[in-house]
Protein backbone atom coordinates (compact mmCIF):
# COMPACT_ATOMS: atom_id res chain seq x y z
CA UNK A 1 0.00 0.00 0.00
CA UNK A 2 1.52 3.36 -1.01
CA UNK A 3 2.58 5.79 1.71
CA UNK A 4 1.44 9.39 1.26
CA UNK A 5 1.90 12.45 3.42
CA UNK A 6 -1.27 14.15 4.63
CA UNK A 7 -0.75 16.90 2.04
CA UNK A 8 -0.33 14.33 -0.75
CA UNK A 9 -3.44 12.47 0.41
CA UNK A 10 -5.48 15.67 0.24
CA UNK A 11 -4.19 16.52 -3.25
CA UNK A 12 -4.88 12.99 -4.54
CA UNK A 13 -8.34 12.86 -3.00
CA UNK A 14 -9.28 16.24 -4.51
CA UNK A 15 -7.99 15.09 -7.92
CA UNK A 16 -9.98 11.84 -7.68
CA UNK A 17 -13.13 13.77 -6.76
CA UNK A 18 -12.60 16.37 -9.49
CA UNK A 19 -11.88 13.84 -12.25
CA UNK A 20 -14.51 11.42 -10.95
CA UNK A 21 -17.17 14.13 -11.07
CA UNK A 22 -16.14 15.07 -14.62
CA UNK A 23 -16.21 11.46 -15.83
CA UNK A 24 -19.42 10.48 -14.01
CA UNK A 25 -21.14 13.58 -15.38
CA UNK A 26 -19.97 12.85 -18.93
CA UNK A 27 -20.55 9.10 -19.08
CA UNK A 28 -22.64 8.01 -16.08
CA UNK A 29 -21.55 5.80 -13.22
CA UNK A 30 -22.01 2.47 -15.00
CA UNK A 31 -19.79 3.30 -17.97
CA UNK A 32 -16.86 4.84 -16.11
CA UNK A 33 -14.07 2.45 -15.07
CA UNK A 34 -11.52 2.74 -12.29
CA UNK A 35 -8.81 2.59 -14.97
CA UNK A 36 -10.28 5.72 -16.57
CA UNK A 37 -10.51 7.49 -13.21
CA UNK A 38 -6.89 6.77 -12.22
CA UNK A 39 -5.61 7.70 -15.67
CA UNK A 40 -7.46 11.04 -15.53
CA UNK A 41 -6.24 11.66 -11.96
CA UNK A 42 -2.66 10.68 -12.84
CA UNK A 43 -2.29 8.06 -10.10
CA UNK A 44 -1.60 4.32 -9.97
CA UNK A 45 -4.56 1.97 -9.71
CA UNK A 46 -3.26 0.62 -6.40
CA UNK A 47 -3.31 4.16 -5.02
CA UNK A 48 -7.02 4.46 -5.83
CA UNK A 49 -7.76 1.62 -3.41
CA UNK A 50 -5.96 3.50 -0.63
CA UNK A 51 -8.86 5.96 -0.81
CA UNK A 52 -11.90 4.06 -2.10
CA UNK A 53 -13.00 0.44 -2.23
CA UNK A 54 -14.74 0.94 -5.59
CA UNK A 55 -15.93 3.63 -8.02
CA UNK A 56 -19.39 3.66 -6.43
CA UNK A 57 -17.90 4.72 -3.11
CA UNK A 58 -16.09 7.57 -4.90
CA UNK A 59 -19.38 8.53 -6.57
CA UNK A 60 -21.16 8.72 -3.20
CA UNK A 61 -18.33 10.81 -1.74
CA UNK A 62 -18.61 13.26 -4.65
CA UNK A 63 -22.42 13.33 -4.43
CA UNK A 64 -22.22 13.97 -0.68
CA UNK A 65 -19.76 16.81 -1.23
CA UNK A 66 -22.02 18.42 -3.86
CA UNK A 67 -25.05 18.04 -1.59
CA UNK A 68 -23.12 19.64 1.26
CA UNK A 69 -22.45 22.70 -0.97
CA UNK A 70 -26.15 22.88 -1.83
CA UNK A 71 -27.15 22.59 1.83
CA UNK A 72 -24.90 25.52 2.75
CA UNK A 73 -26.68 27.58 0.09
CA UNK A 74 -30.02 26.29 1.43
CA UNK A 75 -29.24 27.97 4.77
CA UNK A 76 -29.49 31.37 3.08
CA UNK A 77 -32.77 30.34 1.39
CA UNK A 78 -34.26 29.25 4.72
CA UNK A 79 -33.23 32.49 6.42
CA UNK A 80 -34.79 34.58 3.66
CA UNK A 81 -38.06 32.59 3.79
CA UNK A 82 -38.37 31.84 7.51
CA UNK A 83 -41.67 33.75 7.73
CA UNK A 84 -43.47 31.11 5.63
CA UNK A 85 -45.67 28.57 7.45
CA UNK A 86 -43.64 25.41 8.18
CA UNK A 87 -45.23 23.17 5.55
CA UNK A 88 -44.94 25.84 2.85
CA UNK A 89 -41.33 26.55 3.87
CA UNK A 90 -40.47 22.88 3.49
CA UNK A 91 -42.24 22.70 0.12
CA UNK A 92 -40.51 25.81 -1.23
CA UNK A 93 -37.18 24.56 0.09
CA UNK A 94 -37.61 21.24 -1.75
CA UNK A 95 -38.60 23.03 -4.99
CA UNK A 96 -35.64 25.40 -4.58
CA UNK A 97 -33.26 22.43 -4.29
CA UNK A 98 -34.53 20.99 -7.56
CA UNK A 99 -33.93 24.29 -9.33
CA UNK A 100 -30.43 24.37 -7.82
CA UNK A 101 -29.65 20.94 -9.32
CA UNK A 102 -29.09 22.72 -12.64
CA UNK A 103 -25.78 23.85 -11.16
CA UNK A 104 -24.77 20.28 -10.27
CA UNK A 105 -24.98 18.15 -13.44
CA UNK A 106 -23.78 14.94 -11.77
CA UNK A 107 -26.60 15.12 -9.21
CA UNK A 108 -29.13 16.25 -11.81
CA UNK A 109 -28.59 13.22 -14.01
CA UNK A 110 -29.13 10.72 -11.19
CA UNK A 111 -32.40 8.79 -11.35
CA UNK A 112 -34.00 5.63 -9.98
CA UNK A 113 -31.71 3.49 -12.15
CA UNK A 114 -28.67 5.19 -10.61
CA UNK A 115 -30.07 4.70 -7.11
CA UNK A 116 -30.85 1.02 -7.75
CA UNK A 117 -27.33 0.49 -9.08
CA UNK A 118 -25.73 2.16 -6.04
CA UNK A 119 -27.91 0.18 -3.62
CA UNK A 120 -26.72 -3.05 -5.27
CA UNK A 121 -23.05 -2.11 -5.37
CA UNK A 122 -22.48 -0.36 -2.05
CA UNK A 123 -22.42 -1.82 1.44
CA UNK A 124 -25.46 -0.88 3.54
CA UNK A 125 -23.35 1.24 5.92
CA UNK A 126 -22.35 3.61 3.07
CA UNK A 127 -26.00 4.11 2.10
CA UNK A 128 -26.96 4.51 5.76
CA UNK A 129 -24.28 7.19 6.27
CA UNK A 130 -25.71 9.13 3.32
CA UNK A 131 -29.22 8.84 4.81
CA UNK A 132 -27.91 10.15 8.16
CA UNK A 133 -26.34 13.16 6.41
CA UNK A 134 -29.70 13.96 4.80
CA UNK A 135 -31.38 13.46 8.16
CA UNK A 136 -29.11 16.07 9.79
CA UNK A 137 -30.37 18.60 7.26
CA UNK A 138 -34.00 17.78 8.08
CA UNK A 139 -33.24 18.26 11.76
CA UNK A 140 -32.03 21.74 10.84
CA UNK A 141 -35.51 22.50 9.45
CA UNK A 142 -36.83 22.14 12.98
CA UNK A 143 -34.97 25.36 13.84
CA UNK A 144 -37.35 27.06 11.39
CA UNK A 145 -40.49 25.68 13.03
CA UNK A 146 -40.88 22.52 10.93
CA UNK A 147 -42.29 19.72 13.09
CA UNK A 148 -42.38 16.24 11.60
CA UNK A 149 -45.35 14.03 12.47
CA UNK A 150 -43.18 10.99 11.76
CA UNK A 151 -39.62 10.29 12.86
CA UNK A 152 -36.70 12.00 11.11
CA UNK A 153 -35.54 8.69 9.62
CA UNK A 154 -38.93 8.06 7.96
CA UNK A 155 -39.11 11.70 6.82
CA UNK A 156 -35.59 11.44 5.36
CA UNK A 157 -36.28 8.24 3.46
CA UNK A 158 -39.60 9.59 2.19
CA UNK A 159 -38.00 12.77 0.88
CA UNK A 160 -35.10 10.79 -0.66
CA UNK A 161 -37.66 8.64 -2.50
CA UNK A 162 -39.43 11.79 -3.70
CA UNK A 163 -36.14 13.29 -4.86
CA UNK A 164 -35.39 10.27 -7.03
CA UNK A 165 -38.95 10.27 -8.38
CA UNK A 166 -38.66 13.94 -9.25
CA UNK A 167 -35.38 13.34 -11.08
CA UNK A 168 -37.27 10.85 -13.25
CA UNK A 169 -39.64 13.70 -14.26
CA UNK A 170 -36.92 15.60 -16.10
CA UNK A 171 -38.29 14.50 -19.48
CA UNK A 172 -41.53 16.39 -18.79
CA UNK A 173 -41.90 20.00 -19.89
CA UNK A 174 -41.06 22.49 -17.14
CA UNK A 175 -44.67 23.51 -16.41
CA UNK A 176 -45.89 19.90 -16.10
CA UNK A 177 -42.88 18.97 -14.00
CA UNK A 178 -43.54 21.84 -11.58
CA UNK A 179 -47.26 20.97 -11.33
CA UNK A 180 -46.57 17.28 -10.67
CA UNK A 181 -43.92 18.06 -8.05
CA UNK A 182 -46.19 20.51 -6.26
CA UNK A 183 -49.14 18.07 -6.20
CA UNK A 184 -46.99 15.28 -4.79
CA UNK A 185 -45.28 17.56 -2.27
CA UNK A 186 -48.58 19.02 -1.07
CA UNK A 187 -49.93 15.52 -0.35
CA UNK A 188 -46.79 14.11 1.26
CA UNK A 189 -45.97 17.17 3.34
CA UNK A 190 -49.54 17.35 4.64
CA UNK A 191 -49.04 13.88 6.11
CA UNK A 192 -45.49 14.52 7.32
CA UNK A 193 -45.43 18.06 8.72
CA UNK A 194 -47.59 19.76 11.35
CA UNK A 195 -48.70 23.21 10.26
CA UNK A 196 -50.18 26.26 11.97
CA UNK A 197 -53.66 25.44 10.64
CA UNK A 198 -53.67 21.84 11.93
TrEMBL record:
DNA-binding region: 33-52
Domain HTH tetR-type: 10-70
Entry protein name: TetR/AcrR family transcriptional regulator
Lineage: Bacteria, Bacillati, Bacillota, Clostridia, Lachnospirales
Organism encoding this protein: Blautia parvula
InterPro entries in UniProt: Homeodomain-like_sf, HTH-type_Tx_Regulator, HTH_TetR
Cross-referenced Pfam families: TetR_N
PANTHER family reported for this sequence: ACREF/ENVCD OPERON REPRESSOR-RELATED (PTHR43479), ACREF_ENVCD OPERON REPRESSOR-RELATED (PTHR43479:SF11)
Keywords: DNA-binding
